[in-house]
From TrEMBL:
NCBIfam families: PRK09454.1. The keyword Nucleus does not apply. Residues 19-257 form the GP-PDE domain. It comes from Cupriavidus campinensis. Its EC number is 3.1.4.46. The lineage of its organism: Bacteria, Pseudomonadati, Pseudomonadota, Betaproteobacteria, Burkholderiales. It is an enzyme of class 3 (hydrolase). This is Glycerophosphodiester phosphodiesterase. Gene3D superfamilies: Phosphatidylinositol (PI) phosphodiesterase. GO terms for molecular function: glycerophosphodiester phosphodiesterase activity. CDD domains: GDPD_EcUgpQ_like. PANTHER family: GLYCEROPHOSPHODIESTER PHOSPHODIESTERASE, CYTOPLASMIC, GLYCEROPHOSPHORYL DIESTER PHOSPHODIESTERASE.
Length: 257
């Protein structure tokens, strides 16, 4: 099963178009995560690339949400995939953060695509399935990404901790670049990346040092990491040749360029 690959250029070490500084969930903790308000706030500090989490609603629509449940970041309760898009749209996804953001809606992937493309921003879509929906979510993200970014000069970078979700994305849209998220680096991490056709390793920054980054580059992979909020640690990682640094500290870590 595959969808048209579109006209995206091949993304690899020789053609890596993404900025080195990436805003986590929009603007990390400075605005309600995974909302358009957070993206706008991150952009106000000069960030040109945004990482965010996507999962499926009950009626198969893609929305931005980190947790499997609604309780922490919305006025709703229970599983995200128990509600339809219409029901999710009625929730308050900003009031939990601060009164200034009360009424901020749960955005769709389509809304984020419109905003980021209109402003020339790049995106890293983390496929974040509710447990049990890994393949379906990976395939849906890939299909919609192909459609929503059709004609874009730079495709979205897809990432996930779920190898099943990434494999689904690979099968459906092999032309979209992928990164495997790893909290710990297993001995066979290069083989896992190759098996999934990934262009990048996206690791917990605590797992990285100069040798790991050099090895990844020698194996033909770019290296991203999460979530770096200390300025000195960010400088150290970038000095080792890190290709993408994901941070909440958009107000303290100035993006290059």
């Amino acid at each position: 099963m595959s969808a048209p690959s579109g006209t995206f250029p091949v993304i690899d070490a020789a053609n890596w178009p993404y900025p080195r500084h990436i805003a986590h969930r929009g603007a990390g903790k400075l605005a309600p995560e995974n909302t358009l308000a957070a993206f706008r706030h991150g952009a106000s500090f000069g960030y040109r690339m945004f990482e965010f989490d996507v999962k499926l609603s009950a009626d198969g629509k893609l929305v931005l949400m980190h947790d499997a449940t609604l309780d922490r970041t919305t006025s709703g309760k229970g599983r995200v995939d128990a509600l339809t898009l219409g029901e999710l749209a009625a929730l308050d996804a900003g009031g939990w953060h601060s009164p200034a953001y009360a009424g901020e809606p749960v955005p769709t992937l389509a809304a984020i695509a419109r905003y980021t493309r209109a402003n020339g921003f790049h995106v890293n879509i983390e496929i974040k399935p509710v447990p049990g929906t890994e393949w379906r979510t990976g395939a849906a993200v890939a299909i919609d990404a192909l459609s929503l970014w059709q004609g874009a000069d730079v495709p979205p970078l897809l990432s996930s901790f779920s190898e099943e979700a990434l494999d689904a994305a690979r099968q459906v849209a092999p032309g979209l670049p992928r990164a495997l998220l790893l909290d710990k680096l297993p001995a066979d991490w290069p083989e896992r990346l190759r098996r999934l056709g990934c262009v990048a390793l996206d690791a917990n920054h605590r797992e990285l040092d100069a040798a790991v980054i050099a090895r990844a580059h020698a194996e033909g992979f770019q290296v991203l990491c999460y979530t770096v909020n200390d300025e000195s640690r960010a400088a150290e990682l970038l000095s080792w040749g890190l290709d993408g640094l994901i941070t909440d500290a958009v107000d303290r870590i100035e993006p290059a360029g």
